[in-house]
Amino acid sequence: MARYILTGTPGAGKTTLLRLLEQRGHPVVEEAATDVIALEQALGRDEPWADASFIDLIVALQKQRQMGAGPGFFDRSPVCTWALSEFLGFEPSAVLRAEIERIEVERTYERSVFFVQNLGFVTPTAARRISYEDALRFEQVHLEAYRRFGYDLVLIPPGDLAARADQVLANTPFQ
To answer: Does residue 17 belong to any structural domain of this protein?
Structure first.
């Protein structure tokens, strides 16, 4: 079952790229962290990422979405959550470790991961309060995490959205 991960720094255009892939008829699975942040903020927690339990909330939603999905494109994965945990200075939790082990044993995702490179800026949102400089550091943490877990990175450089989508599709059995 071909499940491909799209990852990269915040503001790199992953979600926009995912929207175009969806428009072209490919199944997509939304990023969990943004939805967790939105819900937690609606519940009155302005910076939910400041608490280590935030990581487990993301893992739970990622797993729920992955278990209900077939082949397609995934906006981030538990490896991204591992990178986020490291970036935030949290020790990876037992829940995160178990999920990483599960996806490795089950070979849940394709080994080729699409790493959407940054666009040269970050546009802040309610969920994205990261500076461009921190986003670049976070980008490196992501790269290192995927390499550590043995994934092959397919770099998607900045550029025209359609060209980025074409590059992704050229590296999959989807056309």
So the answer is: yes
Q: Does the reported pTM lie above 0.90? A: yes
What domain count does the chain have? 1
What CATH number should be reported for the domain holding residue 131? Answer: 3.40.50.300
DSSP secondary structure of the chain:
--EEEEEESTTSSHHHHHHHHHHTT--EE--HHHHHHHHHHHTT-S-GGGSTHHHHHHHHHHHHHHHT--SEEEE--HHHHHHHHHHHTPPPPHHHHHHHHHHHHHT-S-SEEEEE---S-----SS----HHHHHHHHHHHHHHHHHTTPEEEEE-SS-HHHHHHHHHHTSS--
Tens digit of each residue's pLDDT (9 = 90 or more) over 29-46: 999 998 999 999 999 998
Please indicate, yes or no, if residue 175 is contained in any of the structural domains.
no
Q: In sequence order, what are the residues at sequence separation of 6 or more whose Cβ sits closer than 8 angstroms to the Cβ of residue 57?
A: 36, 40, 48
How far apart are alpha carbons 118 and 9 in whole angstroms? 6
Supply the range of the domain harboring residue 154.
3-170
Q: What's the pLDDT tens digit per position in 100-159? A: 999 999 999 999 999 999 887 766 665 666 777 888 888 999 999 999 999 999 999 999
